[in-house]
Amino acid sequence: MEIGRPYSRLLCRLEHFDILSLHDRQRVAELPLTVVNCVANQQIVRIGEKSSRCTLVLGGFLCGHKQVGGSRRQITSFFVPGDIADLHALHLPSPDQDISALGPAVVAFLPRAALADMLGNSPRLAKAFWRETLMQAAVYREWIINLGRRDAIARVAHVLCELILRLQTVGLARDLCFSMHWTQMDLADACGISNVHANRIVQELRRLRLIDWDSRQIRIRDWEALVRLGDFSPNYLHLRDAEAHGISAPQGLLEPAEP
Amino acid sequence: MEIGRPYSRLLCRLEHFDILSLHDRQRVAELPLTVVNCVANQQIVRIGEKSSRCTLVLGGFLCGHKQVGGSRRQITSFFVPGDIADLHALHLPSPDQDISALGPAVVAFLPRAALADMLGNSPRLAKAFWRETLMQAAVYREWIINLGRRDAIARVAHVLCELILRLQTVGLARDLCFSMHWTQMDLADACGISNVHANRIVQELRRLRLIDWDSRQIRIRDWEALVRLGDFSPNYLHLRDAEAHGISAPQGLLEPAEP
DNA sequence: CGACCGATTGACACAGCTCAAATGAAGTGG
DNA sequence: CCACTTCATTTGAGCTGTGTCAATCGGTCG
Known about the structure:
2 copies of one chain form a homodimer.
Chain A: H1 8-14, H2 22-29, E1 34-38, E2 43-45, E3 53-66, E4 74-79, E5 98-111, H3 112-121, H4 123-149, H5 152-169, E6 177-179, H6 184-191, H7 195-207, E7 211-214, E8 217-220, H8 223-229, H9 241-246
Antiparallel strand pairs in A: 1-5, 2-5, 3-4, 3-5, 6-8, 7-8
Helix pairs in contact in A: 3-4, 5-6, 5-7, 5-8, 6-7
Chain A binds a DNA duplex (30 and 30 nucleotides) through helix 7.
């Protein structure tokens, strides 16, 4: 789980639309941070508990989730390296969901005061961070679509497509392959299905030769087909044209879309 | 559909946590705006179409929605008076969903340039608007929970509870009653169910004497029970204590929660 | 070696979907 | 004021995707 400079993937996201000035990049690079290794399922933010820091993902995955009534939890979002998982801490008094590690992860805590200070001094950085929150909202919207109107196999396919693309924007999963130490139950909780059914869907995806999911790693074998199955269109990720273009076959073999 | 001063409900939301200075309120009040009456189902924002304005709801309801594959649309959010429906236009190049009126509505268009100018000149206003986007994201998260882990009747109940509280924070629906010119299919599209099933759920809610829904108006008859049925807990709305307190019985008769 | 956790499989139940038709309500135009 | 249209609500009858329950299997770790 190599990390590089801790802020590099964050910068990669912040500069998605506008290049930052050298001065601004410097400000980000100088943010004080505390790096922490998390074990699988470690809880990082607890609903209702005020905290004075934000959490930047350096390696692995985090997820936001919430328990409902008697039933199983629902995962509301994944956070990949370069994401700040609790941006709401910037302006809201207390978190409205839990945030935990999915599998082992590495995070950096940024003191909110330092962050607020930085944003106050640079309108351009403030804009970049604000945009970051808006892009997260766009992903939430797409998840609503996913849960509301797609069947189980499409949901899973859609989630995988999204993950691949988000990883690629920060330089990961270039080969349509990434290691993911999480369980089928985690997948189920993200897709709003039962763990048993999640297992059947994974098997079906394997049978269709769309993915390999051995214990600790996912490999997309047929990107085109996965995109079709998941009814995936990436505009909600607000990628730049170049990347969005890559969608048709980000790194895999080119295959005609129509049979 | 009395409107009052067009910006009054917006101010009501912006000042939810911090009181604005007189100067800031003045800035908001002086925003140039174009008031427009919308007919039912009128489309206001089209996916992918750049625009240089934001849309403030003055009366009625808007909704964000998206069409998927062959199936029915999914509504991702409601917007009530005082909400700005397309805040993403502030920092994202193009919208990733459609926005339409649910029933007749009155909106005001605010030129993005004027808005950006205002936000650039007042850090406190910028913070208030940013917080507004974060609170919308919190609502999206809750909708993900709703669609992922609750059954149909709980979804509908939850959506109704949310609407009531959001209306009350801007001074509407004080009597647990509001007029809502939208169809059962709109409700179905928000809850991720079929229109036929939505109808059955509405009938069930009527049979249980939880709501009246005559053609054009919804009246909550048993708030406590609706909250319980919808597994509704309002913390995700980030209401101030006073309001959140009112939840147990916002205006209705006080009834003990436990049987 | 035992304990534990996650993946897998099977059988059965049911919430919610689809299709289709009937009813009701609100215009619209003659 | 009455046909006629249109759109929303309502009802019924199967069908199916997915959940639940329960048992088994396989790997990992102490």
